[in-house]
From TrEMBL:
Residues 168-205 are annotated as: Disordered. The lineage of its organism: Eukaryota, Viridiplantae, Chlorophyta, core chlorophytes, Chlorophyceae. The keyword Membrane applies. It comes from the Eukaryota. The chain crosses the membrane at residues 20-43, 50-77, 83-104. GO terms for molecular function: N-acetyltransferase activity. It comes from Tetrabaena socialis. This is N-acetyltransferase domain-containing protein. InterPro entries: Acyl_CoA_acyltransferase, GNAT_dom, NAT_camello-type.
Length: 308
């Protein structure tokens, strides 16, 4: 369900993402051709030797460039004789890729971007594949994951959201297990503990890591009394029924309960941003390349309640 929630974001960002990738492929092709031109100018034999090299490189049986002007055909033949085959192959591949990017139909573009998006999400959001290991360790570790379940539906999860807490909002962590004892707080084997450790790395005195600080504001503008809302998703079949709004309201209350001063979130999905603004969030700053960070003041006042 959570991965499917990225589909709306994909639809909003696909045209811009494909345009960026196309420009990148064109720049690579141009740079490759420029490098070939420089190499040709340096390696080209002077005077009559050039003509001899061109004649030797293009036997009559391979004269497949007769449709070109004579000067261009001679230049191409000379380049084939002077430049290494791998360099010419690289240039042809770069040009072919740029042409394919320009000519690809919309369905192909979206399909390729979807595969890329899924790969990036799975690699960068590893916490979502080991929920119990990363999120089941309690407030002491600065993170909680909340879900909404359907009433009378056998506990079916219909929405979910994560909260990340600054250092001032956390109680002291539990003592380490005794020597030789098993660490059961990670919810399982070594892979879970490794995922939890990776999710917590690079935290500074505010309680947030470098990636979180970069997303939430210029210069990392996060405070130890801040809470961050993310990983928010609602079952696409059950949207516009108030489920998402109710879950956001509970997240606001929860962040205030632990003493948070602000609740922040970041999104590149214009529909999601409109939804959050309707839930009382206001703009904090725009993100390069699209998207924005929103915030909302909390009744907790930022005093912290580390004893909870």
């Amino acid at each position: 369900m959570w991965l499917e929630g990225w589909e709306e974001t994909l639809g909003a960002l696909a045209p811009r993402a494909w345009a960026f990738l196309t420009r990148a492929s064109l720049l690579i092709a141009a740079a490759d051709l420029a490098a070939l031109a420089v190499a040709f100018a340096v390696l080209r034999p002077p005077g009559p030797a050039a003509a001899a090299a061109a004649t030797a490189a293009v036997p009559a049986s391979r004269g497949g460039v007769a449709w070109l002007p004579a000067a261009a055909a001679a230049l191409a033949a000379e380049a084939a004789a002077v430049l290494p085959g791998w360099a010419l192959a690289g240039g042809a591949a770069a040009v072919s890729l740029a042409a394919a990017m320009l000519a690809a139909p919309p369905r192909v573009r979206v399909g390729l971007l979807r595969r890329l998006m899924h790969a990036l999400v799975r690699r960068s959001c590893t916490d979502m594949w080991e929920l119990h290991a990363v999120w089941g360790r309690g407030l002491s570790y600065g993170r909680e994951y909340w879900v909404a379940e359907s009433e009378g539906g056998g506990g079916q999860v219909v929405a979910g959201a994560a909260l990340r807490y600054g250092a001032a909002l956390r109680p002291p962590p539990p003592p380490p297990p005794p020597a030789g004892g098993a660490d059961v707080t990670a919810g399982g084997g070594g892979g879970g503990r490794g995922a939890a450790k990776a999710a917590e790395e690079e935290e500074d005195a505010t309680g947030f890591n470098r990636f979180e600080r970069k997303l939430q504001g210029p210069g990392g503008g996060l405070l130890p009394t801040d809470a961050v809302l993310f990983r928010m998703v609602t079952d696409s079949r059950l949207r516009r029924r108030g489920i998402g709004k109710a879950l956001v309201g509970r997240m606001v209350d929860r962040a205030a309960e632990v003493g948070g001063g602000r609740l922040l979130l970041t999104s590149a999905n214009p529909h999601a941003l409109a939804f959050y603004k309707a839930c009382g969030f206001g703009p904090l700053h725009e993100l390069p390349g699209g998207g924005a960070t929103l915030w909302r003041a909390l009744d907790g006042g930022g005093g912290g309640k580390a004893g909870l």
